[in-house]
Amino acid sequence: MKNEVKTTNIRFNLGKEIQKKAWQYLQTMDKKKFKSYSNAVSIAIVYFFERYYRSENDPYLETREKEEKFIERIVSSVESSIEKSLPFFLSGCAAVINSSSSPPPEKSKPEENFDWDFLGE
């Protein structure tokens, strides 16, 4: 257990925009989710480098992720629309089923309304 903890110092130059932004995030982070600066910095470093190496090996990773999010939004929208219109659709189906249980109306035969004179005698 002697070598399990490593110590380092981080210095933020607030005159540089990226470092200032990083410092502001650390100051406003949710202390319930991120227990300490070490925890937040560790998560950020691991997330950054895992993504960096994945995108280095897969140059279309970001594009594919955007497409997947777009598809998820489309599917979600369609599901929502179906949920809203399903009761109306089902009531229409029930009405058709109920009307088909009554006897069908009299249909005329096509031969009765057809002029057969063109055939000649």
Shape: elongated
Helix content: 55-70%
Radius of gyration over all CA atoms, rounded: 35 Å
In N-to-C order, the SSE pattern is HHH
Counted beta strands: 0
Helix tally?
A: 3
What kind of sheet is the major sheet?
none
How many domains is the backbone divided into? 2
Overall mean pLDDT stands at 84
Low-confidence stretches: none
Distance between the ends: 112 Å
Determine the oligomeric state from the structure. Answer: single chain
Structural class by sheet pairing and helices: mainly alpha
Strand content: under 5%
Describe the 3D structure.
This protein is mainly α and 121 residues long. The protein has two domains: 1-57; 61-90. The chain is built from three helices and no strands. It has helices at 17-28, 37-57, 61-100. It is elongated and about 110 Å long. The chain starts with 16 loop residues before the first helix and ends in a 21-residue tail after the last helix. The model has no long low-confidence stretch (mean pLDDT 84).
What's the gist of this structure?
With 121 residues, this protein is mainly alpha-helical.
Write a concise keyword list for the protein shown above.
121 residues; mainly alpha; 2 domains; 0% strand
Q: What is the topological layout?
A:
Blueprint: H1 17-28, H2 37-57, H3 61-100
